């Protein structure tokens, strides 16, 4: 998956809001058919989202376009997928998943629709949102259920699906979800998914809190944030972009090691720190992340 620093939710039935999403600078938009669409508007939202994908794809917009369909248990997901899988769609942001078998079934449906629409096999990705107790209890199996899985997130947010399922009381410090957020990162990395995303920060006025939320999750290993408001996008983009200082430090570290290696050493004192090939690989990852972000800008 591309290094999305920010993914912004846009209500699917409000076509003009997608343009506001573009103006926010988000790396990806999530056109929502689920919770931000009233029950009475579900049917009319599908063609609106399809038309939005067609329009933005024709315009060649920079952000990738994802869709959050309704959950499988809602009975609405099949119609959602029929409507939105088309050229220009990067993938599906799956809510309220329960187990790996569900992912396998969705993969089969998506494969059929890809073939019908003339899309390359496997081109539609899946991001799994862990919002049920069952999914979090089996997060490793779900992460590895299909090669389509591109990223994972879950276990945050006050008074919503996760909190209700698990019964915890949300705090900004996040100690009540630290284990789960850490486990999701571990499941992602174990499945070869190197870009787990955090989300969401619900207080749209508390920008300092949004920044701290990004920083806390970055320290855990998350590499981007799912945003519910455009005001959070710039914060996420800043926090999850390696600083010029960090990139410069990494490049100097790599150069110092390569010079020592050429002289026959497998370790070197770099600015007072003992470094070896393991540190070089970490530095190369930082440089690669920065270059990938720049390439997608």
From TrEMBL:
Residue sites binding substrate per the record: 68, 131
Segments forming domain HpcH/HpaI aldolase/citrate lyase: 5-230
Keywords: Lyase, Magnesium, Metal-binding
One Pfam family linked to the record: HpcH_HpaI
Residues reported in the UniProt entry to bind Mg(2+): 131, 161
Secretion signal span: none
An example molecular function term from Gene Ontology annotations: lyase activity
Name the record gives this protein: Citrate lyase subunit beta/citryl-CoA lyase
Keyword Nucleotide-binding assigned: no
Top-level taxon: Bacteria
Cofactor: Mg(2+)
GO biological process: oxaloacetate metabolic process
């Amino acid at each position: 998956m591309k290094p999305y620093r920010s993914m912004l939710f846009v209500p699917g039935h409000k076509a003009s809001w997608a343009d506001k999403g573009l103006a926010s600078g988000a790396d990806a938009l999530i056109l929502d058919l689920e919770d931000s669409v009233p029950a009475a508007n579900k049917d009319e939202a599908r063609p609106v989202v399809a038309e939005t994908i067609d329009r933005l794809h024709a315009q060649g917009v920079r952000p990738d376009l994802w869709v959050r369909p309704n959950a499988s248990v809602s009975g609405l997901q099949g119609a959602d997928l029929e409507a939105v899988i088309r050229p220009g769609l990067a993938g599906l942001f799956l809510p309220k998943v329960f187990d790996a078998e569900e992912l396998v079934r969705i993969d089969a449906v998506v494969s059929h629709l890809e073939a019908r629409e003339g899309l390359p096999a496997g081109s539609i990705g899946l991001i799994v949102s862990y919002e049920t107790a069952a999914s979090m209890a089996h997060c490793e199996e779900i992460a590895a259920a299909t090669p389509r899985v591109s990223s994972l997130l879950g276990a945050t947010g006050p008074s919503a699906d996760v909190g209700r399922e698990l019964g915890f009381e949300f705090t900004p410090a996040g100690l009540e979800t630290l284990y789960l957020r850490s486990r999701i990162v571990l499941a992602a990395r174990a499945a070869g998914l190197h870009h787990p995303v955090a989300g969401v920060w619900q207080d749209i006025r508390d920008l300092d809190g949004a920044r701290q939320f990004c920083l806390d999750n970055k320290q855990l290993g998350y590499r981007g944030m799912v945003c519910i408001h455009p005001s959070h996008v710039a914060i996420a983009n800043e926090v999850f972009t390696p600083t010029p200082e960090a990139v410069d430090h990494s490049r100097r570290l790599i150069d110092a090691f390569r010079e020592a290696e050429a002289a026959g050493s497998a370790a070197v004192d770099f600015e007072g720190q003992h470094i070896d090939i393991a540190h070089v690989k970490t530095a190369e990852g930082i440089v690669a992340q920065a270059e990938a972000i720049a390439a997608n800008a």
